[in-house]
Amino acid sequence: MRTVLTAGYMMISMLFGLVQIVATAGVIVFGIIKLIKALKNKELQIKKSSVISFICIAISILSFIFNMGWLRVIMACTLIPVIQPIIFFMINLYAERYSKKAPVLKMINWIFIVTYPLFWLCLPDFADMGPSYCFFYQVKDEGVVAAALTSAIIIGIVHIISLILQVVWLVNIRSKKSHNHKALCADGTMKKVIIIGCPGSGKSTFGRLLNKITNIPLHHLDMMYWNEDKTTVGKDVFVERLKTVMATPSWIIDGNYGATMEMRIRECDTVFFLDYEAEICLSGIEERKGKARSDMPWVEEGTDEEFISFVKNYNKESKPKVMELLSKYSTKNIIILKTREEAEKYLEFVSEGYK
C-alpha cells in the first residue's frame, strides 16, 4: 500500500512539476519576444525588467526542484506556481515603464521583486517521513525550519500587499490615460497638434501616421526652415511661414525649434511629447541616414558630432526646459509617450476613435 501511495505521490509531483515548467517556458518565450523588441528599439527599461523577472522565476523553479514535498504539491494543485510567474512578469513590465516618474511606485515594485524569490527561498517543505527542510534541502533543523516558515508567511503577505498596491496604481494610471485619449477623440477635439521630442525619436513618422488617421493637415518645421542646398531661411521668413500654418483651422506640426515652441504650445490644443531614451533616438538617426525624406528637403548623410552630442544630452539639458513649458500650459491635452511601442498603441487607440 505504501509503495502504491509513494508511486502516486511521485507521479503527482512529476505532473505538477511538468505543468510548472511548461507555464514558465511560456513566460520565458513571451519574455524573449519582448526582449527582442526591446533590443531592437533600445528600450532599456523593458530589458532590465525582463532580466530581473527571469532571475526571480528561475529561483522559484529551483525551489520546486530541490524542495518538492507535499506542501508544494498542494500549492501546485491550486496553480499558484503557474499563475504567479505570469503575474510577476507582467506587473514588472508595466511598473518599470511608469515608475520612472513615480518614486513610490518604484519602491513598491522593488519590494514586490525582492519578496518574490525570498518567499520561495524561505518556504520550507515537509516529507512524508523524516524531518522538514528548507533552503534547497540544505537545512533540516526544526527551529530553523519553523523560523523560515514564519518568515515565508510574513514575506508572502508583504508580497501580496505590494502586488495589490501596484495593480491599483497601474489601473489608476491607465484609467487617466484612457480618459485623456477619449477626450481627444470625441467630437473632433484634436484639431491643432504639435509633436515634439528629441531628434531621432520619430516625430515626423508619428505625424504622418496621425495625419493618415485623422486627415488633419501635416506640416514639418524642417521643411519650413531648410532649403534644398542645406542653407536656412531667415528667422522672419520662418516665423511668417509658421504663423500662416497656425492661422488655418486645423494642423499637425512636428519639430522642436525652441525659439518658437512656446508660440506653438500656446496655439495648439494637443501636445505629443515623444519622451524616449537617448539610445532609441540615436538608433533612429542612424536608420534615416542616406534616405530621402518627406520632412527634410535634403538627404542626411555622415555624422555630425555636435548634433550627436546634443541628442545624447537632450534628456539632461533640453528636456527640463520642455517640461517647464508643458507645466506652464498644463491645461492643454498633453500626451507623453515613453517608448515606440506605447506610441504605436496610442495610434491604434486613436484610430479606433476615428472609425
Give your account of this protein's structure.
With 355 residues, the protein is an alpha/beta fold. It folds into two domains: 2-175, no CATH class; 190-353, P-loop containing nucleotide triphosphate hydrolases (Rossmann fold). The protein contains 14 helices and five strands. Strands 2-3-1-4-5 form a five-stranded parallel beta sheet, with helices on both faces. The longest helix has 44 residues, at 142-185. The N and C termini lie far apart (68 Å). The model is unreliable at 41-45 (pLDDT under 50).
Q: Which short descriptors sum up this protein?
A:
355 residues; alpha/beta; Rossmann fold; 2 domains; 14 helices
Intertermini distance: 68 Å
Structural class: alpha/beta
Number of folding domains? 2
Number of helices: 14
Largest sheet: 5 strands, parallel
- What is the topology, as strand order, of the major beta sheet? 2-3-1-4-5
Alpha-carbon Rg, integer: 27 Å
Task: Name the poorly predicted regions.
Answer: 41-45
The multimeric state of the shown protein is single chain
Counting DSSP E segments of at least 2 residues, the number of strands comes to 5
Mean pLDDT: 80
**Morphology call:** elongated
Helix content range: 55-70%
Strand content: 5-15%
* Helix and strand run: HHHHHHEHEHHEHEHHHEH
What's the layout of helices and strands?
Blueprint: H1 2-41, H2 44-66, H3 70-77, H4 80-98, H5 103-122, H6 142-185, E1 192-197, H7 203-214, E2 218-220, H8 221-225, H9 235-246, E3 251-254, H10 258-267, E4 270-274, H11 278-288, H12 305-312, H13 314-328, E5 333-337, H14 340-353
Parallel strand pairs: 1-3, 1-4, 2-3, 4-5
